[in-house]
Specification:
The chain has 195 residues and is an alpha/beta fold. The protein contains 4 helices and 8 strands; from the N terminus they run βββαβαβαββαβ. It has a single domain, classed as Rossmann fold (3-Layer(aba) Sandwich), CATH 3.40.50.1820. Helix 4 links the parallel strand 7 and strand 8. The protein is globular and about 40 Å long.
C-alpha cells in the first residue's frame, strides 16, 4: 500500500493538481513521472504512469506526478512541451531544490523528462532516468548526457504503433543509449503482451 498525498502546486502554467506517493521507508529522494500527451487523454492517472510511480516508490523514492496544463483540474493550456518542462522544473525547485532526483516519463512525458534532464544536468544530482515509449516521432527529445547513460533505462514496446520502434532505436543509437524492447507489447504494454 502506497501513502498518497494530494497536492496543489503553483507553477508557471498556473495551479496544478498533483499527487505525491511516499516511500514506505526512508526516502532516497524525489522522483517525478511525466504523463502522456495532454491533448490525447494523457493524465497523471495513466496506468503506465501509475506503474512507474509504484516501482519508484518500491525502490525507495518519494514520487511526484501532476496533471500537465489543462488536464484534469490543472490550470493553463498545452504548450507543446515548453511550458510543461518549465512546470516540472519549478515543481522540482520547490520540492527538491538540492536533489537527489529520479526522472521518468511515458510517451510525451518521456520527451518532457529528457528536456528536464538537459536543463538540470550537471548542476542537479540526477540518479535515475526512466524513459518509456519515448515520443521521438513527433518531438525532438534532448539527448541523455553521456555521464547519465548508466543511470538511464529506456523501454519500448516492439509493436508500439504510436511511436515506431525503429525511430526510438535510431534516436538511441546516435547517443549509444541502450533500449530494452518488450516483445509483442504495444503502446500501453498490454496489447498482445504477456508481461
Amino acid at each position: 500500500m502506497v501513502a498518497q498525498q494530494a497536492l496543489w502546486l503553483e507553477l508557471p502554467g498556473g495551479r496544478h493538481q498533483a499527487v505525491l506517493d511516499k516511500a514506505l521507508s526512508s526516502s532516497k529522494g524525489l522522483a517525478f513521472v511525466a504523463h502522456p500527451h495532454p491533448l490525447f487523454g494523457g493524465t497523471m492517472d495513466n496506468k503506465v504512469v501509475q506503474t512507474l510511480s509504484r516501482a519508484l516508490v518500491q525502490s525507495g523514492w518519494d514520487c511526484l506526478r501532476f496533471n500537465f496544463r489543462g488536464v484534469g483540474q490543472s490550470e493553463g493550456v498545452y504548450d507543446e512541451g515548453r511550458g510543461e518542462t518549465d512546470d516540472v522544473l519549478e515543481a522540482l525547485r520547490q520540492l527538491a531544490p538540492e536533489g537527489p532526483l529520479a526522472l521518468a516519463g511515458f510517451s510525451f512525458g518521456a520527451f518532457v523528462a529528457c528536456q528536464v534532464v538537459a536543463q538540470l544536468w550537471p548542476t542537479q544530482r540526477i540518479h535515475k532516468i526512466l524513459l518509456v515509449g519515448t515520443a521521438v516521432g513527433n518531438f525532438d527529445p534532448a539527448p541523455v548526457p553521456s555521464d547519465l547513460h548508466d543511470a538511464c533505462l529506456a523501454v519500448h514496446g516492439e509493436r508500439d504503433d504510436t511511436v515506431a520502434l525503429s525511430a526510438v532505436m535510431q534516436w538511441a543509437s546516435l547517443q549509444a543509449l541502450p533500449v530494452t524492447v518488450v516483445p509483442t507489447a504495444g503502446i500501453s504494454f498490454t496489447d498482445n503482451c504477456r508481461c
